[in-house]
Amino acid sequence: MRNKILTFAALLALTVSCQDAYEIEQPGFRTEDSQIFNSSTDIARGINALYNQIPAEGEINFVSYFTDELGVGRDNAGQGINDGSYRFFMNPGTGFAGSLWNNMYNLVNRSNRLIHRIDELIAVAGTGTEAVAEINALNYAKARLHVLRAYAHMKLFSYYTTDYKNGSALSVIKFDFYHTDDYTRYEKRSTVNEIVSFIEKDIQTAFDLTNGGVNLDTQADGVSNNNFIGKNVAHAILIKLYAMTENSQGILDNIDAITDKNIGTAGSFTTLFAKEEVGLESNPDLVWRLIRLPNDGGGVAGAWWAGAVAANRTAYMEIGRSLFNEINNLNPNKLDYRYSVTVLGDSQPQANYQSLSANDYRERDLLFIGKYPGTTEAQLQNDIKLIRYTDLYLAKAEALAMNGDYKGVENIIKEVRTARTLVLDDPGVVVFPTISSVREAWDAILKERRVEFAFEGARYLDMKRLGVKAGSPGFVRDAKDCELNDACSLPVTSFKLTLPIPRSEMLSNPNMVQNPGY
Amino acid sequence: MRSKFTWILTLFFALMMQVGFAQKQVTGVVKTQDGDPIPGATVMLVGTNLGTDTDDEGKYTLNLKKGDKIRVVFGGFKPTTLTVSDSGVLNVTLVEEDITELEGIVVDTYRTVSKPKNSNAVSTVTSKTIEGRPNASFIQTLQGQVPGLNISTGSGQPGDNNTTVILRGLGSINGNVEPLYVIDGVPMSSDRFRSLNPNDIDRIDVLKDAGATAIYGNRGANGVIVVTTKRASFDSSLEVKYVGTTGMSFLQDNQYNLMNAKQYVDFQRKFGIPNRQLTSVDPNAPTINYTNPVDGNWVDVFFRNAIAQNHTLSFSSGSKNLNNYTSIGYSDIEGVLKTTGLKRFNFRTNLNGKSDNGKLTYGTTVSANFSKSDMASSAGSNALNQNYFMGAFQGLPYLRPDMYNGTFDSAFNALRVFSNGSMPILLMDKMRTNGLKQEEFKTIVNGSLNYAIDSNWSIGTNLGADYQTINQFSFNGPSSFNSFYFAAADQEWLGSIGNIDERRLIMTSNSNIKWNKTFGKHSVNAGAYIEYLKAHFKSSSISKEGFDPNFWENGKATGWIGDSDQNDYYAPSASVGEQSAGMFSYFGLASYDYDTKYGLDVTLRRDASFRFIDENRWGTFWSVSGRWNIINEKFMEGSTVFSDLKLRASHGTAGNQDITGSGVFGSAYLYTTLYSAGRGYADEPNAYALSQLPKRDLRWEEITTTNIGLDFALFNNRLRGNVDVYRKQTDDLYQPIPLSAINGSTSIFGNFGSLRNEGVELLLAGDIVRNKDLTITLNANGSYNKNQVLNLPNGEGFTWNGSSLSGMREGGRIGEFYLYKYAGINPQNGETQYYDKNGAITENPTDEDRQWLNKSSLPVYQGSFGFDVNYKGFFAQANFTFAKDIWRFDNDYFFFTQPSSVGMSNMTNDYQDYWTTSNRDAAFSNPNANNLYHLSDSDFYLRDASYIRMRFVTVGYNFKKSDLAFMKLSGLRVYAQAENLVTWTKWKGWDAESNRGVDLSQYPTPRTVSFGVEVQF
Question: Which residues form the signal peptide (chain B) (predicted)?
Answer without folding.
Answer: 1-24
